[in-house]
Amino acid sequence: MAAEMIIVNAREEPPDGWDAAVFLAGPAPRSPEVPSWRPAAHAELRERWRGGRLVVFDPEDRKEVLFDYAGQVDWEERCLNLADEVLFYVPRDLETMPAFTTNVEWGIWHDSGRVVFGAPPGAPKNRYLLHYAEKFGVPTATDLPGTVAATLDRIGSGAARTGGECEVPLLLWRTAAFQSWYGAQRAAGNALLGARVVWRFGDQWGLRVRIRVAAEDRIKDDEMVISRPDLGVVVLYRPGPTLDATTVVLVREFRGPAATPDGRVHEPPGGSGPAGGADPLRAALAELAEETGLALPADRLREHGSRQVNATMSAHRAHVFAAEITEDELAALSSGGPHGVAADGERTYVEIATFGEIRRERLVDWAALGMIAEVLTESGIGEG
């Protein structure tokens, strides 16, 4: 697709689709005699853009029109949320371009994960903004070409989106978790009509969505989709004469959301650490070694498929694996610890319990109980 750039000025309606969208945030001149920096930004973007359709949201008026303050504020809020990247350029001049509103916008967006900050070295009163740019790893530049280049570098070639898809920024659109969820919705014939990022923390996010439910011919508003990277989980067990007498390996760890008598979670070892990347088996093996100290070769694990863990709220899945362990391995697991990645504040302890104890003493949550039951019943333990 040939490169195309569309400029959407203040209070104008955006097109129905694009590959990337940029909002030009920064001060506007207080009088017509003072030149704006935004035309030069248009030229830089047009020269450097190599993707498909790029939409540029410019909060300055295209021509002299009757100013509508409330309409302007609403338009800016809408288009800031539509943008894949918010390009902040702050050539502040306290007389002609004081950038008071820009300071507020920066305070809202600086930790969103989709901003770039630029300012000439001599522009005053930017120290505080630059401090937070450094703190949150925001790319910075000292001139407009560098700011534009940093913005487009983050966008890359973008991704084609139409309709409600345009309300999902590239930051989320490119994640495996979003694509897995959205792929399932599309396969069911449902259509995304709107979305708004509510929060983002690292690789976890919450999205408020509006969806047309094809099977029911209705629109469902204000659905909340929460997600994180998929989990790789390992159920280690030592068969007993019955299902309830089968030994299972758990890990105990403090987690803030735990509402258990001891304030900690009890579950099979697993997680989604960076060692796993997009490979659930690799993640499962890495988490097993980190949380229990037991390193197993990949061929020791059996795959039991994947399911959502809490489908009423979170889109992520748990990929469950299992391994039958030896008496020696069980004995080794019973000693030592704690385990975990200390640098990440992770501290785990191995727990050994029979399946009967896990059920009767309610040691695990329903999701973990289901994973364990699936593995043990599929393994044929207690049959005949």
From TrEMBL:
Coiled coil: none annotated. Residues 227-384 form the Nudix hydrolase domain. It holds the Pfam family Nuc_deoxyri_tr2. SUPFAM superfamilies: Nudix. Residues 258-279 are annotated as: Disordered. PROSITE patterns: NUDIX. Signal peptide: none annotated. This is Nudix hydrolase domain-containing protein. It comes from Actinomadura vinacea. The lineage of its organism: Bacteria, Bacillati, Actinomycetota, Actinomycetes, Streptosporangiales.
